[in-house]
Amino acid sequence: MGGARNAPLLICYYFVFPFRPDYCVAGCNGGKIKRKRMLQQVEIEKKFTVTRLPEKLEQYPVRLIEQAYLNIDPVIRVRRQDDEYYMTYKGSGLFAREEYNLPLNEQSYRNLRSKAEGNVIAKRRYLIPCRDGKHMVELDVFEAPFAPLVIAEVEFETEEEAEQYIPEEWFAEEVTYDPQYHNSNLSRRQFS
């Protein structure tokens, strides 16, 4: 009687503790339960359009980024940054909001990216020191279909620090509070 072999059922789980949202339990049956601290922070940033690119842009470190959105309210994003992969949850807000990053492997990233809605965003992110010597400009140069869009972001430790920041000379308009410049909304932009 040559019956089919029953494959073992693999159950994987992920649970965030409501009373400690910075911790989670993740594991699979047959494996150890892992309690991991999630990469959590409050993201405080200002965004600017750019009048001109800095001179000798090629001298600065650059990261290749591809990201897709599974949801925009709340924001749930998957991202490839060079050879690293993440899933990110972002809370509400335009200037300051909670952000949780969970590491992914390449296969998980590709699987989730295929389920995303809207445009996949590809961009080059240049890391340029601010003239104040304390902060870093993340200069995003978008690829098609968003080109020639260029957005500069500067992140801060506190809201007070952000309010005191004097923009770089090559920045144009501050667009921090304009939702159309958030990547999650860009992902939904229609192109003809």
Q: What's the architecture, going by CATH?
A: Beta Barrel
CATH superfamily: Hypothetical Protein Pfu-838710-001
Total discrete domains: 1
- Strand fraction: over 45%
Unreliable residue runs: 7-23, 25-37
Would you mind describing this structure in some detail?
The chain has 192 residues and is mostly beta strands. It has one domain (40-186): Beta Barrel (Hypothetical Protein Pfu-838710-001). It has three helices and twelve strands, in the order E-E-E-E-E-E-E-E-H-E-E-E-H-E-H. The strands form two sheets. Strands 4-8-7-6-5-9-10-11 form an eight-stranded antiparallel beta barrel. A three-stranded antiparallel β-sheet has the order 1-2-3, with no helix packed on it. The longest helix has 9 residues, at 106-114. It starts with 11 loop residues before the first strand and ends in a 6-residue tail after the last helix. Mean pLDDT is 83; it is low at 7-23 and 25-37.
Write the layout of secondary structure elements.
Blueprint: E1 12-17, E2 20-28, E3 34-37, E4 39-50, E5 62-72, E6 75-81, E7 84-90, E8 96-104, H1 106-114, E9 117-129, E10 136-142, E11 150-156, H2 159-164, E12 171-174, H3 183-186
Antiparallel strand pairs: 1-2, 2-3, 4-8, 4-11, 4-12, 5-6, 5-9, 6-7, 7-8, 9-10, 10-11
